[in-house]
Amino acid sequence: MLSNQKIAIIGCGNLGASIANGLLKKADFDPKNLILTKRQTASLADFAAQGVQVHSDNIQAAKEADLVILGVKPYNISPILNEIKPGLDSSKIIISLATGVSLAEMYGVLSDDAVAFRAMPNIAADIQESVTCICSNNASSEQVNTVSHLFDAIGFTIPIEENLMEAATVLGACGIAYVLRFMRAMIQGGIQIGFDSVTASKIVNQTVKGAAELMIQKNMHPEAAIDKVTTPKGCTIVGLNEMEHQGFSSAMVRGVIASYDKIAK
């Protein structure tokens, strides 16, 4: 489906570049169908070398594309929409990656017959392992399938109601940073008990990957898997209980809520 679609990523920063990398790893995706824009294009030179169209003309990118992804900061969504509006028509799909900018705010600039989506992937798009939550307005089932197929190319997609988009941002996008901070702490602990940093990293990386795959493939609740490794008077339960005494789960929940409150204000 994507092989015939031209995709523009306007304001191609870190997240946009991750999406671009994920798309380019698809065997059937033609780099010539990808357009990346940025004010300063030097950082996109590697994409240009792969045959991707790279320039700073947002209006031209919007004119040429079938799907227009806005990878700009939230405060730039309205200005960018106003800028590219001359290049938009009702056949194009506009997708905002911006946190906290509602579809209603986008339609404050767009025409009523425009097709707009919000999407929240994460940086694992770079390796085609993102989870992307999407919501839309004015979209047909075919257009929803098109956008889902786009983000399935970089992981998998979950359609949700718009009132959950901020929560999706916290769990899916902020959440990857929470997991990485947890991994860093595990590596630090591994170094303290005797491993060098490289070996500790390898062990932790595979352990976290294995835990995630176990949940996915076995469709298990985390506590069910925890029960399998917490033997009576064993070292695992001692470690878990000490973490809980120090507020591990509480700190995680409070962090999730704090991030959500920051977006929802």
From TrEMBL:
Occurrences of domain Pyrroline-5-carboxylate reductase dimerisation (ranges): 162-263
Q: Which reaction does it catalyse?
A: L-proline + NAD(+) = (S)-1-pyrroline-5-carboxylate + NADH + 2 H(+); L-proline + NADP(+) = (S)-1-pyrroline-5-carboxylate + NADPH + 2 H(+)
Source species, domain of life: Bacteria
UniProt pathway: Amino-acid biosynthesis; L-proline biosynthesis; L-proline from L-glutamate 5-semialdehyde: step 1/1
The principal location of this protein is cytoplasm
Give start and end of each Pyrroline-5-carboxylate reductase catalytic N-terminal domain. 6-99
Q: Which Gene3D superfamilies match?
A: NAD(P)-binding Rossmann-like Domain (3.40.50.720), ProC C-terminal domain-like (1.10.3730.10)
Q: Which UniProt keywords apply?
A: Amino-acid biosynthesis, Cytoplasm, NADP, Oxidoreductase, Proline biosynthesis
EC numbers: 1.5.1.2
Matching PANTHER family: PYRROLINE-5-CARBOXYLATE REDUCTASE, PYRROLINE-5-CARBOXYLATE REDUCTASE 3
Q: Which family does the record assign? A: Belongs to the pyrroline-5-carboxylate reductase family.
Q: Which protein, by its recorded name, is this? A: Pyrroline-5-carboxylate reductase
